[in-house]
Amino acid sequence: MKGICILGATGSIGVSTLDVVARHSDKYKVIALTANTNIDVLYEQCIVHTPEYVVVVNEEKAELFKQKIKNSTVSDIKVMSGAKSLEVVSTLDNVDSVMAAIVGAAGLLSSLAAAKAGKTVLLANKESLVMSGDIFMQAVRESGAKLLPIDSEHNAIFQCMPAGYVAGNDVKEARRILLTASGGPFRETPVEELHDVTVAQAVAHPKWSMGRKISVDSATMMNKGLELIEACLLFNMSPDDIQVVIHKQSIIHSMVDYVDGTVLAQMGNPDMRVPIAHAMAWPDRFESGVEPLNIFDVKQMDFAEPSLERFPCLRLAYEAIKAGGIMPTVLNAANEIAVDEFLNERIKFTDISVVIEQCMSNFSADKADSLEHILDADKQARDQSYKIIKEMS
Ligand code: NAD
Ligand code: MG
After folding, report:
1. Which pTM was predicted?
2. Among 10, 13, 212, which is best to mutate for testing ligand 1, by the most ligand atoms less than 8 A from CB?
3. Which residues of 103-205 form beta strands (DSSP E)?
């Protein structure tokens, strides 16, 4: 029986994880669940999964949550609040696996704490890896933590690696990664119309149902940009050896091209419970609840090269990883601010890449040699981005 802590339990990945957990209650026991503000969903999850601990980051909501459980069947759950508590629950002795599913930089310290504590880290929170890069991978190596990718593409690549593969290691025989992308909702929209796309259009992903931030990232293809950086770190690859491929059917979730000409692909219905169940059962397999893939329904699979003119965010991500140092941290921070401002209808969709590019031009790619340095670069890039946005309006 393994103890699991789910960071970001109330989000899209958190909910899918609990769905898989419920199918395997003989193998997994929920020790801790965390949320930022959504105490109604968290309460329902507590009734079903009876965790020992809960973190509600928002202090006021945490007080409301305590009132809510007072006279319930789960009144003995220990409720904590504040961001620091995320690190407490991700390193508890009876926690074996940590699902890192907080969105954005807010997930960095708790993901890193789990890595440092030698936990099995099920990593969905790509932003934390993009920000902290080598520091994160070093923490994994030093503690002996197991790092299993949840992002569907990275989980697919991991599955296409040789048996016994350990994240971060080099596979000499793997010459290229083919990182697939759906292309998002604006794959074919005329470029001149992108200026006027609405929030509702941007978050309506054609293939995946996800949180709002990653849905916008998919529409700009910054999601693929962050994933490119994530793949460089997880699989010790150069960005020049990673080809982004638009595959609109989202049946192949990525491929590895080997020196002998073999290309291995992982396929499945586009449902995050597939990679979640894979990582939770690893190195075995168990059921995810996902319908079997009906290959006859697929009929056709298309592959195309993405246009960097249509998707400038993807170009910026290539530039950031090639520059190295703190540049991926700056890219990520500027993107988080720009996406948030777009979601709040304060900037246009096409302004997102403009803000990021301007922000990056204000930084040099200094070596990211400590966590303090990274957090400082993150903060400075956020301040810069707000300033750029203010000057735009
Ligand atoms: P979401 O918005 O649905 O959920 C986010 C979760 O994070 C919620 O539980 C929320 O309470 C929590 N959270 C938000 N802000 C917080 C803060 N400041 N402090 C603490 N907790 C906070 O997001 P999601 O779609 O589930 O994505 C989560 C992560 O997984 C992201 O990094 C995303 O890139 C990655 N991911 C998601 C998918 C997907 O299909 N949804 C696929 C691949 C990777
Ligand atoms: Mg992905």
Report:
1. 0.98
2. 13
3. 120-123, 146-149, 174-181
